[in-house]
Specification:
- The structure holds two protein chains of two kinds.
- By secondary structure, chain A is α+β, with helices and mostly antiparallel strands.
- Chain A has nine helices and twelve strands.
- Chain A is elongated, with a radius of gyration of 23 Å.
- In chain A, helix 3 packs across helix 4.
- Chain A folds into two domains: 136 residues, Aminopeptidase (3-Layer(aba) Sandwich), CATH 3.40.630.30; 103 residues, Nonspecific Lipid-transfer Protein, Chain A, CATH 3.30.1050.10.
- Chain A starts with a strand and ends in a 14-residue tail after the last helix.
- In chain A, the strands form two sheets. A five-stranded mixed β-sheet of chain A has the order 10-9-8-11-12. In chain A, strands 1-2-3-4 form a four-stranded antiparallel β-sheet, sandwiched between helices.
- Chain B has a five-stranded mixed β-sheet with strand order 1-2-3-4-5. A five-stranded mixed β-sheet of chain B has the order 10-9-8-11-12. In chain B, strands 20-19-18-21-22 form a five-stranded mixed β-sheet.
- By secondary structure, chain B is of the alpha+beta class.
- In chain B, a hairpin with a 2-residue loop joins strand 3 and strand 4.
- Helices cover 36% and strands 26% of the residues of chain B.
- In chain B, helix 8 packs antiparallel against helix 9 and helix 14 packs parallel to helix 15.
- Chain B has four domains: 131 residues, Aminopeptidase; 127 residues, SCP2 sterol-binding domain (Nonspecific Lipid-transfer Protein, Chain A), CATH 3.30.1050; 125 residues, Aminopeptidase, CATH 3.40.630; 104 residues, SCP2 sterol-binding domain (Nonspecific Lipid-transfer Protein, Chain A).
- Classes of the chains: A alpha+beta, B alpha+beta.
- At the A-B interface, helix 2, helix 3, strand 5, strand 6 and strand 7 of A face strand 3, strand 4, helix 4, strand 5 and helix 5 of B.
């Protein structure tokens, strides 16, 4: 196994491949900043506690394909750790974690900390085998500043899922902050069209803005919101349609962020 | 009025002050040296969305937004803002500055122009519950994140505990350790061993393999951390022992000593982890020294005044120029009559008094965080001695009513409480004061009210308009003197309305005493809620120097 891979430090020009690897490895997750070369340079390479020796890359000896990398800061933070899905992930993760640990020992760091997706058992196993312990992760809080733009973006991404849903829906947001447009309509037809005001519609969804935030971000079930009287549909007989729409719009992807996304 | 600071956007000349503020507020993150990288040299740096709070030309707070993209679903990426580096100088906290900074530039236009769809933050859950969620409508995200950690060494801990000064402080804080002869080693697979030896009042700490230790504690590091964080350490240790999460080898009689060590380590770790630079300074016994005023003291004196009277209203807001005029340059006041108490450990001013030949102590001010009895005792003794020497017949000063420590030291020093001169207030511009109050509470007003209130004033002086109209709606708050259609009509006299605004009379009291009439009567509770917000909620206090 060991003969297949080699580990080295970062060289200029690796950026594109590292960025592609990151975006592919995190494709199924939400809640992180999609990497571009510029963003990666800023958030990793140019970070004050990161030196070129702290960016460790594992590649296949034969093909030179990068199969994993980690960005380690002298502060003890593993800002990014990423392993290709089509490789011996557990082995590569172990190699990267061991390299990171020995680098941090060399620079006299007192600790080593990293975030791992909760469904990535390979990296987790590599951590446990090297005697890491688990800490509660830092919480992430999200607010929606532009509901109509978010609903439009989500609706366009699930257009096929919506099937023959042809309706104009008006959202009436109660207790909305001053920067939020409290009334908007969305026409679901062959195209999805958003209006920044109420237009004649098939039904209205009347809801507190924080409840709609929680529904869209997947923290609250729309049906539970109706049962608790926190969401109203007018006319109520369109209830099933409204539930279908909100369920389809709801973001259910697992949210994961690397420490580099702290900024 | 209440607001003594202003919020604005970042200007290039603010760089040094903001960099320093961020560095001192977040010393733990990259040792505080990251502002240039994170903001100034960031290609997406947008000064117009960085909020600055300024007071008397000094930057006292800042809040940043990092503009970027956030992936929210497979193939869905939206424009985002990460709220970060919200910092307010410690002496200016609890005045609503953070709240105002967070709301600065938070408009529909700001977000639309930049295609911002979501705003997010990695926040302390307590802060999120108290501030972000109610103010900004944030939702906590269910994360698919596991955070792993490992301790590679105890260098920082050893460095701190090994200092002679630290040993003194820790022994003072945990006096039982003086009599303790104990060696204990904490062992975990996620960290090197940590050995502590307490011998005759000396503390030795090392990360060597345990040799000849009386107690060996073995547990997962997460369990040890949970013990350090527990409120009742001993109970937590016993529970963990019974649950077999901790193994303790050694004499059971030494268990008490072990719990003491946990308490000690807990305090040390907390001090290091939060890098409370003040921790050890505060733990030291302050050394107070009294001296006369020196040039340059005025800046720190004004800061102390602001800090000491932050929760009061009714006095003239201080700046160094005003202070020099009303104190140092006052006839009858000389430098020999101005006493300053300095905490020598921190080299800062913690109290001062300005005595005049007339026998008045024009100002006496002290830092409530310090030993009030000691600081005020020193000031009173020096000023009294000075006034006796120059032949003053009496000594008098104004003191706040609600400080028992001050009252105690005054009684002990032979002072008696007299009825203070009354302060009479007349509002010259009702519209102006209501506008100031609504500006201070606009967010709350917009959130809870959608009303148009017309107030008709009887017996108003000729310079006061007889009507006041307040419109509160989603589009903002408007205060006018012209009459418009209204939902609540209030008829009252000028004195009652002034008392309401000044906070001397509560809206409920005014209603129960039939001092005002509300139509429709069903809106009385709305009126009560509204004018509970639209009133000065601070207690009033003025030092004698404000007499003029």
């Amino acid at each position: 196994m060991e003969n297949r891979y080699q580990t080295r430090t970062f060289v200029e020009g690796d950026e594109v491949r590292l960025v592609n690897l990151f975006n592919e490895a995190h494709d199924k997750y939400s809640g992180f900043v999609p990497r571009t070369e510029g963003y990666w340079r800023w958030s990793c390479r140019d970070r004050p506690d990161v030196k070129p020796e702290g960016i460790i890359v594992t590649e296949e000896k034969q093909s030179g394909k990068i199969v994993g990398y980690t960005v380690v800061g002298k502060s003890g933070n593993i800002w990014e750790l990423c392993v290709d899905a089509k490789t011996d992930r557990k082995y590569v993760a172990s190699v990267l974690i061991e390299s990171a640990t020995s680098y941090l020992r060399k620079v006299n760091a007192d600790q080593i900390v990293l975030n791992v997706p909760s469904d990535d058992l390979d990296i987790q196993e590599a951590c446990v085998q090297t005697d890491f312990f688990e800490l509660p992760p830092d919480q992430m809080f999200v607010g929606i500043t532009d509901f109509e733009a978010l609903v439009e973006a989500l609706a366009k991404s699930i257009k096929e899922k919506l099937g023959d849903f042809r309706e104009t829906v008006t959202f009436r947001l109660l207790k909305a902050q001053s920067w939020i447009n409290p009334v908007f309509s969305v026409r679901f037809d062959t195209e999805i069209q958003v209006f920044e005001k109420a237009v004649p519609s098939g039904f209205s969804i009347i809801v507190d803005s924080d409840v709609l935030t929680a529904i869209l971000l997947g923290s609250v079930n729309p049906f539970a919101a109706v049962l608790k009287g926190k969401l109203k549909i007018n006319p109520f007989w369109k209830f099933r349609k409204a539930m279908n729409l909100l369920n389809a719009l709801q973001i259910r992807n697992p949210w994961f962020y690397s420490l580099a996304d702290y900024g | 009025m209440k607001k003594m600071y202003k919020c604005r956007s970042f200007l290039p000349r603010d760089s040094d002050a903001v960099r320093e503020l961020v560095k001192t507020t977040f010393p733990n993150f990259l040792e505080g040296n990251y502002w240039d990288w994170k903001h100034l040299n960031n290609s997406k740096f947008d000064p117009s969305i960085i909020a600055i709070a300024e007071k008397d030309g000094e930057i006292v707070g800042c809040s940043h937004w990092l503009q970027g993209n956030l992936k929210i679903r497979r193939n869905v990426v939206v424009g985002s803002l990460l709220t970060c580096d919200l910092a307010v100088k410690p002496e200016q906290r609890n005045r609503g500055i953070a709240k105002e900074l967070l709301l600065q530039r938070r408009t529909r236009e700001t977000f639309k122009n930049r295609n911002i769809v979501v705003n997010y933050d990695f926040a302390d859950p307590r802060l999120a519950k108290k501030l972000y969620t109610p103010l900004l409508g944030y939702t906590k995200i269910g994360l698919a994140v596991k955070k792993y950690a490992k301790a590679l060494g105890w260098k920082r801990l050893i460095d701190v505990v090994s200092k002679e000064e630290t040993t003194k402080i820790l022994l003072k804080r945990f006096p039982k350790l003086r009599k303790l002869n104990l060696s204990v080693c904490f062992k975990s697979k996620s960290s090197p061993p940590l050995t502590l030896r307490f011998i005759n009042g000396k503390i030795e700490i090392s990360e060597n393999e345990p040799q000849n230790v009386q107690i060996l504690v073995e547990a997962d590091l997460s369990v040890l951390i949970s013990v350090f964080e527990a409120k009742h350490v001993m109970t937590h240790v016993l529970k963990a022992v019974f649950e077999r999460k901790i193994k303790i080898k050694g004499k059971l009689s030494k268990l008490y000593g072990v719990s003491q060590n946990f308490g000690l380590l807990k305090a040390v770790l907390r001090a290091i982890s939060t890098q409370e630079t003040d921790f050890f300074a505060h733990a030291q016994t302050p050394k107070y020294k009294v001296r006369n005023f020196e040039n340059g003291d005025e800046t720190e004196i004004v800061r102390l005044f602001d800090r000491a009277y932050a929760r009061y209203g009714g006095f003239v807001s201080r700046n160094p120029k005003y202070w020099l005029w009303c104190c140092l340059q006052r006839p009858g006041v000389s430098r020999e009559g101005i006493f300053v108490v300095v905490n020598e450990n921190e080299n800062n001013v913690v109290g001062y008094a300005v005595a005049g030949k007339s026998g008045n102590i024009w100002e006496m001010c002290y830092d409530p965080q310090h030993d009030v009895e000691k600081v005020v005792g020193m000031l009173l003794s020096e000023t009294t001695r000075y006034l006796e020497n120059i032949g003053a017949a009496t000594v008098a000063f104004n003191a706040v009513e609600d400080d028992p420590a001050l009252r105690k030291v005054c009684n002990e020093s032979g002072f008696e409480a007299l009825t203070a001169a009354r302060m009479y207030l007349s509002i010259l511009d009702i519209r102006g004061i209501v506008t100031l109050l609504e500006e201070d509470n606009r967010e709350e007003l917009i959130k809870y009210f959608d009303e148009s209130v017309l107030v008709e004033l009887e017996d108003a002086p000729q310079w006061i308009k007889k009507t006041l109209f307040v419109r509160i709606g989603r589009d903002g708050v408007y205060v006018e003197e012209n009459v418009h259609p209204y939902t609540i009509f209030v008829k009252t006299d000028f004195a009652t309305f002034s008392s309401l605004l000044a906070g001397i009379l509560t809206p409920s009291e005014a209603i129960s005493q039939s001092r005002l009439k509300i139509e429709p009567a069903g809106k009385s509770s709305t009126f009560v809620k509204l004018f509970s917000i639209l009133s000065l909620d601070a207690k009033w206090f003025f030092p004698l120097s404000d007499y003029g």
